Amino acid sequence: MSPTHTRLQLQAATGIHRGDRQYQQDRIEVFPHARVPGLVLAVVADGMGGRSGGRMAADQVMLTAQQLFDRYVPSQDDPRSLLQSIVRESHLMIKLSAISAEQEPHSTVACALVEPNGSCHWAHVGDSRVHVFRGGKLETRTKDHSYVQELVDAGALSETMARNHPMSNVLTASLGADEEPPFNYESMRLKPGDVVLLCSDGLWHYFVDAELGSALDRLDPRESCEFLIAKARQRAVGGGDNLSLAVLKLLRSDPRSTSAPRIAKSR
Fold first, then answer.
1. How far is CA 93 from the centre of its chain?
2. Which of 37, 118, 155, 180 has the smallest number of Cβ neighbours within 10 A?
3. Is the model's pLDDT at 101 over the cut of 80?
């Protein structure tokens, strides 16, 4: 009898809320690949630059990511190169759009590519984050391109102090800025039960990593999105930013299953 190969099933959900801002400038999407079942790209973009500028920048990130992912061929193309192209081309397109924008557009980005075999690749610019949790415990997360992160790295601030620092929203890198954005790439092989969380600072600002891990471990992706949005809104006490998140959870599946990833949205 031939051995049974473990297949992985991906459950995914996204959530987004305007918070207490007048305009929504966050964008969040999970794109399933049109030709490769089980291959997905998750992207979060937090736009900055006023009503028109910020949303324009975040929209440009999504459009660029979707177009590049549509052309992505796993057997020929490299995940790292895909993510690098998303960062660089989004940055270029935002700078070009600034010529006609009412205000100077900028955006953060966090993107994660999950392959059918469980390999996960991610990159980010700014303070939108990618987290990976295993058994409710944080395995790894991205490090913000921000002023307070530099203070944390220098030992001048703790993570808790940084979260409530008056300059916590000052970025050292973003898409659309004068300087070329950094490209920080990481990858790892996920196991069944692992959870990948992408979110903007309007969400993670209100939680320590242990709280996020606990919620993601005990709830399914859609429930996690609903719970974390509700809790963030409660903790914001009327002063919350736009917030968005995508939750990707890997599960074992029937070896005969060929179903596509299940993606739910919470608005």
1. 20
2. 155
3. no
Q: What are the tens digits of pLDDT across the range 102-160?
A: 678 999 999 999 999 999 999 999 999 999 999 999 999 999 999 999 999 999 998 88
On the question of pLDDT at 231 being above 90, the answer is yes
Q: Tokens at residue 142, please?
A: 């991205």
Distance between CA atoms of 23 and 18, rounded to whole angstroms? 7
**CA pair distance 26, 241, nearest whole angstrom:** 10
**Rounded CA gap, 253 and 239, in Å?**
42
Q: Kind of pairing, strands 262-266 and 7-17?
A: parallel
The sign one gets for the Cα dihedral 2, 4, 261, 44 is negative
* Tokens read off for 58: 């975040």
Cα gap 139→43, rounded to integer Å: 20
Between residues 89 and 159, which one has the greater pLDDT? 89
Judged by DSSP in three states, 197 sits in strand
Do 190 and 6 form a contact (C-beta atoms < 8 A)?
Answer: no
- What pLDDT is stored for residue 162 in this prediction? 86
What is the Cα–Cα distance from 189 to 204, expressed in whole angstroms? 24
Q: Looking at residues 77-101, what average pLDDT do you find?
A: 92
Q: How much of the chain is helix, strand and coil, in % rounded to 5?
A: 30, 30, 40
The structure tokens 């996020």 sit at 212
Strand, helix or coil for residue 215 = helix
The CA angle 146-242-224, to the nearest 5 degrees, is 100
